[in-house]
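hiii so my PI (J.) wants the whole complex modelled not just the main chain, which honestly fair. so below is everything: two entries, each one labled with what it is. i double checked the lines twice but i was tired so who knows lol
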Amino acid sequence: MRPLDGNEDAPMTTQIKQVEVFLFENPSAETPKGFRDYFGTEVTERTEMLAKIAEVYHRYGFDPLESSAVETVEALGKFLPDVDRPNEGVFAWQEEAEGERPGDWLALRYDLTAPLARVYAQHRNDLPTPYRRFAMGPVWRNEKPGPGRFRQFYQCDADTVGTGNVAADAEVCAMLADTLEAVGIPRGDYVVRVNNRKVLNGVLESVRSLVPERVTDNTDWDELKVGILRTIDKFDKVGRSGVVELLTTGRKDNSGAYIDGVGLPEYCVEPVMDFLTAKSEIQSVTFDRLRNAVGTSTVGAEGIRELEQIAALLAAQGYGPDRIVIDPSVVRGLGYYTGPVFEAELTFEIVDEKGRKRCFGSVAGGGRYDDLVKRFTGQEVPATGVSIGVDRLLAALRAKGRIGGSVSGPVVVTVMDRDRMADYQAMVSELRSAGIRAEVYLGNPKNFGNQLKYADKRESPVAVIEGADEKARGVVQIKDLALGARLAAEVETNEEWKAQPAQMEIARGDLVTEVAKMIARTNVYHVNEEVLDI
Amino acid sequence: MRPLDGNEDAPMTTQIKQVEVFLFENPSAETPKGFRDYFGTEVTERTEMLAKIAEVYHRYGFDPLESSAVETVEALGKFLPDVDRPNEGVFAWQEEAEGERPGDWLALRYDLTAPLARVYAQHRNDLPTPYRRFAMGPVWRNEKPGPGRFRQFYQCDADTVGTGNVAADAEVCAMLADTLEAVGIPRGDYVVRVNNRKVLNGVLESVRSLVPERVTDNTDWDELKVGILRTIDKFDKVGRSGVVELLTTGRKDNSGAYIDGVGLPEYCVEPVMDFLTAKSEIQSVTFDRLRNAVGTSTVGAEGIRELEQIAALLAAQGYGPDRIVIDPSVVRGLGYYTGPVFEAELTFEIVDEKGRKRCFGSVAGGGRYDDLVKRFTGQEVPATGVSIGVDRLLAALRAKGRIGGSVSGPVVVTVMDRDRMADYQAMVSELRSAGIRAEVYLGNPKNFGNQLKYADKRESPVAVIEGADEKARGVVQIKDLALGARLAAEVETNEEWKAQPAQMEIARGDLVTEVAKMIARTNVYHVNEEVLDI
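here's the output for the full assembly
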């Protein structure tokens, strides 16, 4: 907090100098638009989840990497990965010039893949090949914030760089399944779906062979292809019939607006529809249907072979279709990836803000991309990986009651006699030594009611009270605040309240044991309450 | 990695537009100047240390807070806390204008205290008072990078906001001692020193009463005070006689340059020297000396009373002077803080880069500052807290061999027959299920030597080998790579190497048990090696 005044020679950015005038005039205490703070259990629960994920990633041989939050704009490139949000920028600024040389442009990373590309290109001689790495941390997007959409959020990625072997893809899928179970999503509540961009490429070749010349005369094939890819991307939203309409003559959307079609004759649409709807309960049937969809395409056949290999590798490790399934209807990211594509979906229903039941949906996605470091070195380096949507996964775990619920507030030792602070400190010292979260009330102790209000705000399970009388008799009062709150809701009069059994007198020597018992009781109640709620 | 091309209407910052031209011309794969990447155990060890610290902070009733990395420049203020590095700036940029309204200036946080001030001012109605919070995460400084000095680094803070009670200061000191022990600094290897700015204020009053009018006629007292404070700050470097010289006539420094003195007559210097050298083995003697130094100053007496209270509270909890000591020679931060000041020092010797033995020194510091949110609300809100130098503490633990040393690389299952990938995957699956870190070699398996080189680079403890012959006989080879490396250093010829016992044949069914044994053996060796090294 030492002011920079008196250090006028300090090298500060020109930007800062321009705004100096604002600095001391009633600054408003607000996060910048689109940013937020995370408090208490919000932080703890995320930290704990990330630790569980890291444990699985590490066990799979992935090494942690923490790159800097700041990259040169040059190294970062002008790419953004998320197809759903194309119009995003980055937060960028220019370094001060050094003599003649203009300052570099720096920016906050917008994902963890672009930094991986830079790291791999920079350190490739020192890193093992293949290089398995995981990274977790915030990324920043300079986009318009919206409800629930922030400009800083967490990503959690694992990638294998430097191998084209589909065993790497299979491994990432298995790891994703294990990770979901490790954080508390039970088997049956999730499924990892696998598709392959190469199969789609085969389908496109198959379509091309059907397209009559009069169509390609008017429209360039590359343009048609872009139209088909865009349409496939909408399969999730518009469904089977919608895709057929959009690939052919066009479609009226929900708002009544008419969306032009791609202009394919209806019989050319068949391979696309065969592809999107190929999934069968019987895996061999899925593959047969895909073979039908790609026709004679070489790349299509290669794509199917890759999916078969992935399925076989996973089966050998005991990952059946109850956990990981070949599903060509997975279209998200197909435009971005170059080989296998994966998506993890939670299959249970939740009740949304509007009281409607809906499937929770996707919490992770990934795939193979083979041009990771090409920008830097010219070399094609194959890579495959997955990114977990940390905040969505946390929301899912909260919705299912898999995290939270147990007591997290500290025991509060109240101050009855401010001259005996040392006694109260000794109590919390004992409690802490036994691993019990505890604190002395450090505000103004005059008003005892305020101390209990404070304990409430802290979600404290137990308050400890030792007045002069208790001190003299070698006892303390302990108060079950959770039980007290429940009783308060049920009793009417002050007399009843006073008669309630939430407070008990114990020997000072039994403090740790009795407080521990009271907390355990509260935790049991919490658990029961949850069980009843579900 | 989806290019933004074709989204020309995307709202991007003007900055980005200016640099578009550079983007595709051979970007260089480098971190920006002053930034670095952290790999593998560097990340794990920090994460583990932070988790241990968080556990202690949490037990003391502190709640985690994660504020955004980005703040408005307005909220951040133009302050920097670290007296040793005054000429620092921040990384800042301007948001795009919205119509008439110019965009806000945003910046990366330069510490965790300025955001705490903003958070407390913003959320004060919802937060408990007092508010105990801890925060850990990167901060950014726009300063000239130097060797070992980075523009992004970790801080780890705990603060209690909203109480002037010295019990809060005592608590922070106790917590700091517990934290150091929790991360692996044994009792005796550290000491937390406590001083008080108020005592220094008393000393200054005492000096003032001695200063003859002819001195204050020529020099303003406030100027003299600044000179005395600056000099005290140098006590660490110039020692007792240096301080006396600097307070009086001046001093020749090591480079031969003459530093002007503050100009006090020698007899006026006495209270300052009494203060700085007041520490005695007997605490009551320390306090007597301090009383002597502050003379009749009220604030000085108050400061001494606070230190006595802190000492008494700590003694009641069993923290003796072997862990926490009242030491008026602690001067770092005295200019910044308004009340008690703490510093944690590691007392063991290490050997520095130049082979010289030296004390490891300070790893944490803190104190009381009472103007935390005043800028925002006008209110004085007292606060006290501590900041741990995460990187220095990690360096200390490494220097003492308290972290690292055990095996962290994965077991590598080699690929002898690329068609049997499923067999190899099944092996790693078994190992992982038993909690053993393991992976299949996913590079090109043609050259077996490359697979072993890869395993070496991964610091793999064990390689697993199963060729067609082994498969047929139901066995696998496991190779102790750590032992292999040691033997290789000791043997001369290839024959001896081949004869060495680092490789053994085991039944396929015993894979998990035998690999676990081999890793355990390696870990024991590592530990012994360390014990011998120290």
